[in-house]
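Notebook entry, structure prediction.
Reason for the run: the old model in the group folder had no record of what sequence produced it. Starting over properly, with the input documented here first.
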Amino acid sequence: MNIKIVDYKPDYAKRFYDLNIEWLKSFFYVEPFDEEVLSQPETYIIKKGGYVFFALKDETVVGTVALMPTEEFGVLELTKMAVSLETRGQKIGQKLLQFCIEFAKSQQLKALLLYSSTKLENAIYLYRKYGFKELELESDSPYKRSDIKMLLEL
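New structure, fully documented this time:
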């Protein structure tokens, strides 16, 4: 299976929205803020200094992930990772994660931060496998559905 990771293109914006909404509905629920951010990735992610990447399988978008700036210089938040229902279980999420780690290193970032849910056992296992360490979750966490915060120092 040939998976290629590419940068954001406006043509892919609808797939960014669709994949993330599908994922949210599968595991959680869609909050109004999700709708806002996912429908405008250029405004909420890219123009703020972030990045959006896509996994292509035979030129079809099958996965996506974003890196968003945090308040701490040199630390980006790994977020909005989703893989299409039909291609889950094919290690596409792992390829997106590896890509983000290599990208962050190439940009000489200090760390990647993420918020997740322990309900997502496979994802948490993968993050730990790649060296993410659990941090204390702040009481005013930005995501209602998150119950774990992790950091990978680069």
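Summary: The longest helix spans residues 13-27.
The old model has been moved to the deprecated folder.
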